[in-house]
Every structure is written in C-alpha cells, then in structure tokens.
Amino acid sequence: MNEELLKIENLTTSFRIGDDYYAAVDHVSLAVKKNEILAIVGESGSGKSALAFSVMGLHTRAKTEGQIYYKGQDIVNLPPSKLNKLRGKEMGMIFQDPLSALNPLMIIGDQIEEILLLHNPKLSSKERKAKAIDLLQKVGIPRPEHTYTQYPHQLSGGMRQRVIIAIAIANEPSLLIADEPTTALDVTIQLQILDLIRKLKNDINAGIILITHDLGVVAEMADRVAVMYAGQIVEIADIYSLISNARHPYTRSLLNSIPASNEKQEKLHVIQGIVPSLKNLPRKGCRFKARIPWIDESAHEENPQMHEVAPGHFVRCTCYKGFHFPDHN
Amino acid sequence: MAILEVKDLKVYFPIRTGLFSRHTGDVKAVDHVNLSIEQGMTYGLVGESGSGKTTTGRAIIGLNQITSGSVLFNGTDLAKGGRRSNLNIRRDIQMIFQDPYSSLNPKKRVWDIVAEPLRNFERLSPQEEKKRVLELLEQVNLSPESIFKYPHEFSGGQRQRIGIARAIALKPKLIIADEPVSALDVSVQAQVLNFMREIQKDLNLTYLFISHDLGIIKHMCDRIGIMYKGRYVEEGNADDIFNNPQHIYTKRLIAAIPDIDPTRREERLKFRESVKAEYEQAYRDYFDEEGLAYPMKSVSATHSVALPGRG
Amino acid sequence: MWKVIVRRFFVMVPQVVLLSILVFLLAKSMPGDALTGMIDPSIDPAALEAQREKLGLNNPWYIQYWDWITKAVQGDLGQSFRFKMPVTDLIGQRLLNTVWLSVATLLLTYMIAIPLGIISGRYNDTWKDRLITGYTYFGFAAPLFIFGLLMLWVFGFTLNWFPTGGSVEPGLAKGSFAYAVSKFYHLLLPAMSMALIATVTTVQYLRSEIIDTKQREFILTARAKGASESRVYNRHILRNSLLPIAALSGYEITGLIGGSIFIESIFSYPGMGQLFISSIMIRDFSVVTALVLLYGIASILGALLSDIILSIVDPRIRIQ
C-alpha cells in the first residue's frame, strides 16, 4: 500500500450570499496517494474547482470546515506564512486558462524564477536562470533560452500551458492539482499535455488531482475517479469499475450522454432539468432526485450516505439500487 | 443536387508592415477550399485552432470577405455582388454561434432576439410576430412565458436553444453551426445535439457543422472535411474518415481522441506512439516546404486526400 | 515600438492641421474683424475698405488661412489689441507659469491618487474604502470653481497661510533662491485645490483596476506559488493596475487645461487660463484664437504622450 499523501475529511466550503452561507463543497471526504491520479469529474457548478481551491487555500472569502490533512498535518486553518511554505513547494497547481494564468507584464523567465526564489532563496540568480531554462526544456519547449525572455502573449496556447506546468512542478511538489488543464487546448495539444503530466507523475512520484469535465480524459489518465454533483461526491471508485460498472444514476447518465466513439446511436441520453445553482440546492435528501422523477420517492434516502458497493467503490444514496433509464428518453 | 457548393474558396487577410502599412503578404486563412453539401445532410468541418474552419463558415454566410472563388447556393453565386444583392438568398442561410452567453444581446428580451430576423426580412403585425415567436419557442421546447425574459435568466443549454430559435425563424435551408456545443456541459451538449437532429428532420435542414471535437462530428455528420492551416487535407464520408484515414494528419487527429475505455489504455498508447512515429517520419511526404497540404486527389468515389504529386 | 510611435506621430499632423483650420474658421465666423473695433467717425469707410483690401481681409478664407498659419508657424500670432503687443510675447510670459502650475497639479494628483486608490482597492468594502469613496463622490460633485473659492477664502484670506494672488512676490531677483521659493509658494494653493478635485477620477480608476486585477487568474498563480499577500500586491496587482493609469496620464492634460482656466482666474495667477478668460471678456480675438490653438495642440500632444507611454510600458504593444 502506498502512503496517503492527502486526506480530506468532511470538507465543507461555503460562500456567503446575502445573509446566508451556501455550501459549494459539501461534506467531501477523499484521499490521494503518492504516485496516483485521482480524477474529480463534474459539470460546471458541481464544486470540483471549489474543492481544489480549498486544498490550495486559494479562496479569499469562503468559510471552510472539516479537515484537510497533508502528510498528516491539518492545513485548513494554517496561518498564511505556513501555508505559503507549502504552496508552490509541496503542492503545485495547474490552471485551466493558459493565457490568463500568466502575468501579461512579466517575461516567462521571471515568472518561473519567482517560484524558485520564494522557496529556495539561496540559489544565485545564475543558478535560478539555469534551473528555469532546465524546467522549460523538461516540459518540452523547443527553444527554452528564447522562450525565457518572451512574454505570455508571444506564445501559443499549448506553449503557455507548458509554462504553467513548468511553474507548477518547479519545486518538484508531492501533490499536483490540475484544474481542467487541457480544456482550452486542441486535441493534439491535449494529448501532448496529458502525456507530459503522466510522465511527470512518474518522474517526481507525485500524487495528482485531475479536475475535468471530460470523461474521455478521465478514462485516459485516472487511477481512481470521484464524481461530483451539486457539491457532493456521488460516486467514487477505481477507473475500471467506474467506467464499466457505474452505479449512481448521475454517473450512468453522464456516461450515456457522451457521443460514443464506436457505435452510432441516433439519440444521446439527456439528463432532465439543470444543475441547481448554489442558492437553489435542496438542503435535505438526495440532490439528484429532481432529475430522475421516474424513480420512486422511497428509493431515496432521507439523509443520503455513501454505500460501499464493492471494495473501494462507494455510491451516495440508495437510489442507485433501482435505477433504470426511462424508456421514452 | 448540392444545395451548397463552394469552389476554390480563398480568404486572405493582408499583412501590413512597416511605417506606411504596405501590403507585404497575406495570411491565407482559407486556401483552395472545395466542398459541396447535399440537401438534408450534415457536413462536418473539422480542424484545430487556426485551421480556417470558422473563417470558411463565416465566408459562406458573408461575414468574412471572400478573396476569390465561388459559393454557390442553389446555383446562385454568393461571392459575387455585395450582401445586399443576395439578400433574399441570405435569409435561407443562418448561423448558430459558439458561445450562448455572448451571442445573445443581454439587454433584449427573448421576444426581440428571436423576432430580429423576422423584422429584417418580413413585415409582420405585432400579433403575427408574437404568434410566430411563440411557435418558434415551442419548437425549441421553451415555455411561452420565456418570451418576456432576458438571456441571463436561462441556462447555457436553454440559451443555445434561443439561438437556434433565432436561426430557424426564417425557415432557412442551410444552417452553419460554429462549435454550437463546445461551451456547454456534456449533459447539456447531448440535449442540444439531439435537438439539432430533431429539427433537421422536421424542417429538412442542411447543416454545416464546424467543430474541433471529433466525437461529436462522428455522431452528427454524414460527410466530413478535415482542414489544416487553411487547406483541406482529407474529405470523405464519416466511414472513410474514421475507419480508413489516409492522410497522416487525419490519422494523428483521430488517434488523439480520448478513449472512454480504460482497459485499452496500453493499446492506445502503443497505437499513438506508432502514429506519432509515422507522422514525424512521413511529414515531409505529406506537406510541402511551407508545411502546407498538397492539392486534393480522389482515392475513391467518396474519399479524397491531399497527397503529393508523385504519390 | 518605434514604428508605433513614428506612425502615431504622423497621425498627429493632420489632426493639428484640421484643428488649426477649425480654430481659424471659428474665429472668422465671429462678427466683425480687426478693423471693426476701430470705428471712428473721423475715418472714411472707404479708407477702411482700402485697409481691409491691403491687409487681405477680403481674400477667400483659404488664402487668409494660409497667411495666418504660415505666420503662426513662424511664431507670429498677431497683435493683442488690448495689450498692444505681439500675442506670442504675451503668451510666452504666461505659458511657463501655467506649465509650472500644471506640473505641480499633476504631481499632487498622483501623490494623492496612488495611495488612496491602493488602499481603497485592496481593502474594498471596508470602512477605509468607504471613507475614500466618500471623498471621491464629494470630488465628483463639488464644482472646481466653488471649491477653489473656498480654499482661497479659508487658507488664503482667513488663515493667511498662502498668498492670494500673483505668481511670485514682487521685487525678488529672477533666478535667486528666494524667487524660486516664492514661485513655489504661490502655486501651491491653486495646484492643491485643482489636484484635490482632479484626483478623484484617478482614485476611482485605480480602485476599480485593482479590484479587477485581484480577480484575474494570474493572481491565483502567484498565490499558488506561495507568494505572500504583500508580494502578490506589490509584484503582480499593483504593476498591472498602474499600467492603465500611466497610460492615461497624457489625457490628464486636457483636464488640466479646463481646470487651470478656472483656477488661475480665481487665484489671480498670471497664466494662460487667466489671460484666456479676460481676453474673452473684452473680445481680444487674436489672443483667444491663439490660446484655443495652443490648448488644442496641447490636448493632441497629451493623447500622443499617452500612446507613447502605453507602447513603452505594455509589452503586448511593445512586442507584437
């Protein structure tokens, strides 16, 4: 067994709207091991990015409850100075939009060197530059010395994303969080970036949280998958069980709504209704209930719990037991 | 007979340099593009960013100036004469845009958004107009009370359906859909794609479907054209492209589609390695000195590929 | 970058030409001409007409314009009939005073705006921010000429802290240290009055830039790197927020012109603005025309300056 790198217990992250707090992440528990890719899948509004931001402590106006243990230490209420020792050194983050995640007024070299400087102030400026160029080389940038002196707007989307990755891995973090790392990229570039992330995982033996809405990317990359819906994890399992034996109605609906690459169906499955907004979340009961009205009310739990349906495979709410797709759909 | 026939289409954007902005060259956004679409079919135009697929679509509908070539819609050349002269034909071609958030005017009610094309082309009394708008909303499965709402009150999928209602208001024959679902979540994507197919049957629509997502293209399209740097590299029926790709670029593109089956990971990895090796090795055979594709040659009745002259 | 600047410079030339034609035509369209004012029963109208012919006042407008503009380029802007001296000399004396006042105002504007904008933007929606935004609303609402009068009355006449008129103490030797100090002393109150009002736009602008930049994704990148809050602000937020402020500085000149016209009149400060108002009052048209032309050119130069600054500080424009 690999040791647990990150362990999240009952994490709830709420935002204040008006006079009330609304939970974007609601009692989430999960763990990431070394050298493992855990994918977190969900649609927009599912709370997957909010979860990642909570781990990195990037929310500025949120209430965070529960525990996040990083190598055994609870980091939820860590003072900023201590948190800053972890961020960028122990934990790295790759952002979604490669253009806006880089400072438009700083050359690439300075942006990489900043993270080296922050965690390794003893390096001479010469050493730092050498390291930065080395990192650019590592992420597959063809002319690193040249790119070092360029500004973000001079690079293509794929190249910018490589720079972001170079920054994230600069100090060889043990935990890497990738928030939709390839969503803004073309398929061939996506493939290269995913290859790079896979290679880095092996190189630095990191645990990776991969956040995405693309089940194809998940199937290509993940060891384990957590499916999020309306702030909660509804299903968590290893990748093989999740794809071949998904149990939760939401996971199954999601899988059925992708245009399959092998057979030509006439109609794709459609999930009724829309993801409820933060303010309109049902506070009690199964959150997916409204979207599968053909399932009997009594199939749902009043206070939905995670059920272990196979070793390491958990599903929320008992409604999975009698779930079937409606005929008329 | 083809409803749309594009012949040797070129869209060049001038490059101006120096102090006096002299015209020193062109960005050949679309170069020697030929395509034809049969009535009632869906034609998929695929390519990565910068391939010229969007510019092609926009040139057909008249949003980009055509440098040369012809766009025959039911036999009439739209490239000749300005937008004005072909006004009556223009109403038969409509567009669905990528971003349902920015393509609808946030200050207008759904009524005004959907009625806009009607107001441009038809003179209707307010009652008639309201009746038509309500019919259209019904067609796209939106409730009658939406007519007085504003775009921000709808979800992404609903907004895209408002965009579709606007596009079908004039009962067009051809719809150019530019990445119509790429801004949407998977489940919503499915909703819009299903819906586009339904109205295609109901209204006998022809689609030019522009997308970078080969999974969706495969699901939707009968015929497919692959573009790279402004030129066609391969064109064929869906079966030709997905089961018998001939150009290395097409092969590479198809190999890059994420596979939903995790048990085939190793297999895919090896396959991609081999495609990558082939791509690197055969690059010079498939592209000229400027890295552009060669002219198209037909390899079967339905299938043509950009192959070098000597091949 | 040089290309941008040189090209921008060429764009400016037709702007200035157009401005000069406009100013000339406006001046022409005003009733009367230089000789109308000399109506004297003893002068024969025929002689006046002959004089008009001699001075070219009966020529078509473009010939008159050409005469005027060729002279203007050589520094001859005509005669002031009030002061009976060349307009160029008249303005020359006052130009420097106005420039000093403007520079002082601009410096004070930024000295107030930058710290206030930073505090307001960084701690938005706290009491500090509310206090500062309260001040900016006051600044937006208060008319400059009333505020100027108030300042003059309080600090000039009531408290006697500052002189109430002129640009320098009479009788001091030009170039002496005391002369310079006195000059500075004289422009402090008018400059401060103008700056306190003019700065509110910049405060608000900087505040909203900072609030905007705070939410940009590269700020998250900086935090994810482990940068401290102060570093995030100094290194990333501030630099990116000050850029548009710097770029707008040239346009401030236009605002300063408007402000200085009021302020100089209120403080009896012998600058171009005061000259402008008094010349309008007594219809000294050659002076007014020349001043309007100068103000126009200053505004155009301000816009040019803004573009040049932007092309220097923003790499997205500098390197294309």
UniProtKB/TrEMBL annotation, chain A:
Its main location: membrane. It is found in: Cell membrane. The keyword tRNA processing does not apply. Belongs to the ABC transporter superfamily. It holds the Pfam family ABC_tran. One of its GO terms (molecular function) is ATP binding. SUPFAM superfamilies: P-loop containing nucleoside triphosphate hydrolases (SSF52540). Residues 6-255 form the ABC transporter domain. It comes from the Bacteria. InterPro entries: AAA+_ATPase, ABC_Ni/Peptide_Import, ABC_transporter-like_ATP-bd, ABC_transporter-like_CS, Oligopep_ABC_C, P-loop_NTPase. One of its GO terms (cellular component) is plasma membrane. This is ABC transporter ATP-binding protein. It is a peripheral membrane protein. GO terms for biological process: peptide transport. Keywords: ATP-binding, Cell membrane, Membrane, Nucleotide-binding, Transport.
UniProtKB/TrEMBL annotation, chain B:
Signal peptide: none annotated. One of its GO terms (biological process) is peptide transport. Gene3D superfamilies: P-loop containing nucleotide triphosphate hydrolases. Residues 4-254 form the ABC transporter domain. It holds the Pfam family ABC_tran. It comes from the Bacteria. One of its GO terms (molecular function) is ATP hydrolysis activity. InterPro entries: AAA+_ATPase, ABC_transp_ATP-bind, ABC_transporter-like_ATP-bd, ABC_transporter-like_CS, Oligopep_ABC_C, P-loop_NTPase. Keywords: ATP-binding, Nucleotide-binding, Transport. Belongs to the ABC transporter superfamily. This is ABC transporter ATP-binding protein.
From TrEMBL, chain C:
It holds the Pfam family BPD_transp_1. Keywords: Cell membrane, Membrane, Transmembrane, Transmembrane helix, Transport. Residues 95-306 form the ABC transmembrane type-1 domain. It is found in: Cell membrane. It comes from the Bacteria. GO terms for biological process: transmembrane transport. GO terms for cellular component: plasma membrane. SUPFAM superfamilies: MetI-like. The chain crosses the membrane at residues 99-119, 131-155, 184-206, 241-267, 287-313. It is a multi-pass membrane protein. NCBIfam families: Opp4B. PANTHER family: DIPEPTIDE TRANSPORT SYSTEM PERMEASE PROTEIN DPPB-RELATED (PTHR43163:SF6). Belongs to the binding-protein-dependent transport system permease family. This is ABC transporter permease. It comes from Paenibacillus roseus.
